Structures are given as structure tokens and as C-alpha cells.
């Protein structure tokens, strides 16, 4: 069984590689790629590639109310649909949601978080979220929070394309207690509405469970009365 362990100690960074070393690493990386998601080295020494980010958010996010999803034309024109309305609503993103991003070697963790929020039209403060790298070692699943200045594509390059070795996860930026002051009044009101609905649903589930149990008991007693002895 895998166990989840969150590491808080930051690793020491080695010396930055030379352009020739980067070129060799990219060639080795692309040789292991089984799809078309290759890395490309630019003339200036930077490189581009793809990363996949798993969204594992346990709390609802805030999005504009009544706004359609962003189209490719909006993205090309850099249209921010969230600015088109002041109305807000909250909902839960699917826990199994995965977003693929095409980024550069100069793209930081902070920019990845902001890009993900923009793609899902999430208007919450980016500081409420954190990017983690997920690794598997000795039967454990290890999560390590990445600094905002880290470069995810370089980590992908070092680990190779196998997501079982390394994957990226977007989670809440846990700092112990929830900092409720960071949420706006509409967000807090939406949280209360969601919690109230979940409470009512849970009560109904318990009531249905014991109602069925009561019916089975009554049926068993009725059948037992009709039997001799």
C-alpha cells in the first residue's frame, strides 16, 4: 500500500547545466517519449515542452457566474472572460482533472499556477494554491511543495517523461489552519451554502439507510410471527 508523505525540506540545487548538457538531456528525454510531446531546444539555449498537472483540490473554487468556457479564439486574443461579470459562484473541480500545459524552461511555478487558474477561469487568489511534485519511492507516495521560483520543465527534463517517476499536482496551499480572512464575503457565503447542502444530503442518506433497515426488520418480524414455535 502506498502512503502519502509530504516533505517540507527543500533540496539543494546543483549548478545550472551548460547548453551542451541541456542538449544532451533533451535528446535522451525525446528518445524515451512514446507520444508526440517532445521537448525542443531553442537557439538562445532555452527549451519548450509539455507538463501534465493533476488537480487535487478538496475545497471549492470561485468562478464567474454564467460565463461560458473560454474558447480557442478567446485564448488567442487573450480575452479574460472573468472580467466580463462581477457575479461569482463556487463549485468543486473534479479530483481526477488533468491539464496539459505547453511551457518554457523559463516558466516558473508561480506562472504555472496562474496559467492553470486562468484556463479554468478561477478568480481566487493564486496564493491559495501550491504546486507539488509527486514521487513514488519504497512503497510511499511523496509530495514536495515546490518554491514559486522553481522551473517545472527542468524537473520534468531531469526525471524523464515517465509520470510514474515524477508528476505535478495542484493542491491547496496548506499552512496549518485555514486563513478565512483571505476569502471574500461572497466566497464565504458560497462555502456556507455548499456546506448546508452537503449536510442536508448526508442527513437524507442516513435517514434512507435506517428506513430500509427498519423495513427489513419489520418484514423479518412479520415472517417470524407466521412460523410455528
Automatic annotation (TrEMBL):
Residues of the Ras-associating domain: 89-175
Keyword annotations: Apoptosis, Coiled coil, Cytoplasm, Cytoskeleton, Metal-binding, Microtubule, Phosphoprotein, Zinc, Zinc-finger
Record has Repeat as a keyword: no
Keyword Phosphoprotein recorded: yes
A GO cellular component annotation in the UniProt record: nucleus
Pfam families per UniProt: Nore1-SARAH, RA
GO molecular function: zinc ion binding
Segments forming domain SARAH: 177-224
GO annotation (BP), single: apoptotic process
SUPFAM superfamilies: Ubiquitin-like
Residues spanning the membrane: none
Compartments where found: Cytoplasm, Cytoskeleton
Coiled coil: 196-223
Subunit structure: Interacts directly with activated HRAS; a RASSF5-STK4/MST1 complex probably associates with activated HRAS. Interacts with KRAS. Probably interacts with Ras-like GTPases RRAS, MRAS, RAP1B, RAP2A and RALA. Interacts with RRAS2. Can self-associate. Interacts with RSSF1 isoform A. The RSSF1 isoform A-RSSF5 heterodimer probably mediates the association of RSSF1 with HRAS. Isoform 2 interacts with activated RAP1A and ITGAL/LFA-1. Binds STK4/MST1, inhibiting STK4/MST1 autoactivation.
Name the record gives this protein: Ras association domain-containing protein 5
Organism placement in taxonomy: Eukaryota, Metazoa, Chordata, Craniata, Vertebrata
Amino acid at each position: 500500500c502506498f502512503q502519502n508523505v509530504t516533505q517540507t525540506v527543500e533540496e539543494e540545487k546543483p549548478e545550472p547545466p551548460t547548453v551542451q548538457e541541456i542538449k544532451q538531456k533533451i535528446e535522451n528525454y525525446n528518445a524515451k517519449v512514446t507520444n508526440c510531446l517532445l521537448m525542443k531546444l531553442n537557439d538562445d539555449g532555452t527549451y519548450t515542452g509539455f507538463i501534465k498537472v493533476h488537480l487535487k483540490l478538496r475545497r471549492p473554487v470561485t468562478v464567474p457566474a454564467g460565463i461560458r468556457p473560454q474558447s480557442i479564439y478567446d485564448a488567442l486574443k487573450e480575452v479574460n472572460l472573468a472580467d466580463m461579470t462581477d457575479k461569482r459562484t463556487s463549485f468543486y473541480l473534479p479530483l481526477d482533472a488533468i491539464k496539459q500545459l505547453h511551457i518554457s524552461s523559463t516558466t516558473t511555478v508561480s506562472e504555472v499556477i496562474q496559467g492553470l487558474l486562468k484556463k479554468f477561469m478561477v478568480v481566487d487568489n493564486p496564493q491559495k494554491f501550491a504546486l507539488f511534485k509527486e514521487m513514488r519511492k519504497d512503497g510511499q507516495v511523496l509530495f514536495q511543495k515546490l518554491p514559486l521560483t522553481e522551473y517545472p520543465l527542468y524537473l520534468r527534463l531531469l526525471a524523464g517523461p515517465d509520470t510514474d517517476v515524477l508528476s505535478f499536482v495542484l493542491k491547496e496551499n496548506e499552512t496549518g489552519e485555514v486563513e478565512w480572512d483571505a476569502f471574500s464575503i461572497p466566497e464565504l457565503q458560497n462555502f456556507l451554502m455548499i456546506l448546508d447542502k452537503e449536510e442536508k444530503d448526508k442527513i437524507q442518506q442516513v435517514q434512507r439507510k435506517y428506513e430500509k433497515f427498519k423495513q427489513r426488520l419489520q418484514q423479518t418480524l412479520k415472517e417470524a410471527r407466521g412460523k410455528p414455535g
